[in-house]
Specification:
Order of helices and strands: EEEEEHEEEEEEEE
Strand order of the largest sheet: 1-2-3-4-5
Number of domains: 2
Shape: elongated
Distance between the termini: 34 Å
CATH superfamily of the largest domain: RNA polymerase II/Efflux pump adaptor protein, barrel-sandwich hybrid domain
Radius of gyration: 19 Å
Number of helices: 1
CATH topology of the largest domain: OB fold (Dihydrolipoamide Acetyltransferase, E2P)
Mean pLDDT: 85
Largest sheet: 5 strands, antiparallel
Structural class: mainly beta
Length: 127
């Protein structure tokens, strides 16, 4: 994908061989006559407000990169607490424990010990 600013608030986007013009107006983006509301957040800034927002609704935990599930630490239907380990995934010879951001119940569990996973694949969901 190639994105270039044509003029202030107007961008040219080339994605999968197709060209788009995006017009940004405050918190809205117009692409081909369709309006989308957007929110820009700086990942380097962490605030209580942002933390609380992510603690609402369904929390999907997805693999950050391709790897292998080493251990599954919960079962479908389990109640979990914030910070509790849920699954351990090995990627690039490092084991990473994925943890719950908030309390809730495991409503989706696709992670299986020994299985390979792709980047972005949802392994667990908490509600």
């Amino acid at each position: 994908m190639d994105i270039r600013q044509v003029e202030p608030g107007v961008y040219s986007i080339l994605a999968e061989g197709r060209a788009y013009e995006a017009r940004v107006d405050g918190r809205a983006v117009d692409i081909g006559g369709r309006k989308f509301s957007v929110e820009v957040s700086d990942p380097r800034r962490w605030s209580r407000e942002r933390k609380d927002r992510h603690a609402e609704g369904r929390q999907n935990l997805a693999a950050a990169m391709p790897g292998k599930v080493i251990r599954v630490l919960v079962a479908l239907g389990d109640l979990v607490e914030p910070g509790q380990g849920l699954v351990v995934v090995e990627a690039m010879k490092m084991q990473n424990e994925m943890k719950a951001v908030r309390a809730g119940r495991i409503v989706l569990l696709t992670a299986v010990a020994g299985a390979t996973v792709n980047a972005g694949e949802i392994l667990i969901a908490i509600e």
